[in-house]
Input
Amino acid sequence: MKKTLATLTAGGLLVATLAASHQGATGIVRDRMDGMVAMRDTVRDLTPMMRGRTEYAREAVLDAAAALERHAGETMTALFPEGSDDAASYARAEIWQDWETFEAMAMRMEVVAGALAEAADNPPGSAMPEPVDNSTMMGGGPSMMGGGTATEPDPEMLAQMPVDRVFTVAAQVCSACHTQFRAARN
Output
């Protein structure tokens, strides 16, 4: 539970400064920042429900999953063409130096967002139908969110999990991508 809360908090902190980063951003840099803010807001709005602080609302989870999925995958990667690392951007050069890993993370977010929608029928903290083997579900733990050597998350297995656990995986994907590919700004 503490690890889940720490992950959600860290993920929230990593994206909390995005709004301030819009100063001077134009064109595609501004477009991708707007997409990241939409994802940040989605995670922020769903966090109290996933922590049990507000009543569970399946429709809110479905809306959030759709928003995450809409900004992930190819939609996300299209917003990072080479040469779009101007001064207003928080994108690190590593995105273009290790495009395969960045692209894999964007695709993982899309998979996990789809699984979040599927898991919406599994309220937070509900029992899973059978034991979950994390090595097949998420490529061996942290590696799922990181490098390109991980196996892809199993969307069917994720969809069987309690929705709060799938939400945590989504937050971990965001956090891992930001850790590797987003520059820190003061």
Summary: The mean pLDDT is 81.
